[in-house]
UniProtKB/TrEMBL annotation:
It comes from the Bacteria. Residues 113-141 are annotated as: Disordered. InterPro entries: 23S_rRNA_IVS_sf, bAvd. This is Four helix bundle protein.
């Protein structure tokens, strides 16, 4: 079994889950049992996905699933803000910053598995420190 307690992304995601447990306690009864439950469950699911991704040999597919779950969590957070479930704007702001940190770490972890050929920008050949350009196609009819 792979160790995961040392991972910064795991620590941050666990902090987010604990934060949701505390913040949801301050929601009104209606939001606590509807939106609050979803926020708590989603944050725990994210922690589980991080543990699973760390144990996988082929991590990128699981990290892509984690990216989707983080996007869903952001949607729930935004919905909670719109219905004024958070007690204060500061609670909302802190929550968004913490989840954004987990997202950045996930993207970094995902990027670490991609080679230079997988990136969005492929560099052309270089000669003498200058990059060669592709010659524009000519019509040779």
């Amino acid at each position: 079994m792979a160790r995961y307690e040392h991972l910064p992304i795991y620590k941050q995601a666990m902090d987010v889950a604990v934060h949701f447990e505390k913040v949801v306690a301050g929601f009104s009864r209606y939001h606590k049992y509807t939106l609050g439950t979803e926020l708590r469950n989603k944050s725990r699911e994210i922690v589980s996905l991080i543990i699973r991704a760390n144990a996988e040999y082929d991590k990128p597919p699981m990290l892509l699933v984690l990216r989707g779950q983080l996007d869903e969590l952001f949607i729930l957070i935004r919905l909670a803000k719109e219905v004024q479930a958070f007690k204060s704007f500061a609670a909302y702001q802190f929550t968004v910053e913490q989840v954004a940190s987990v997202c950045r770490q996930n993207e970094g972890w995902l990027r670490s598995f991609k080679g230079p050929q997988d990136g969005p920008t492929q560099r052309g050949p270089e000669v003498g420190g200058r990059r060669l350009r592709a010659r524009p196609p000519t019509r040779a009819d």
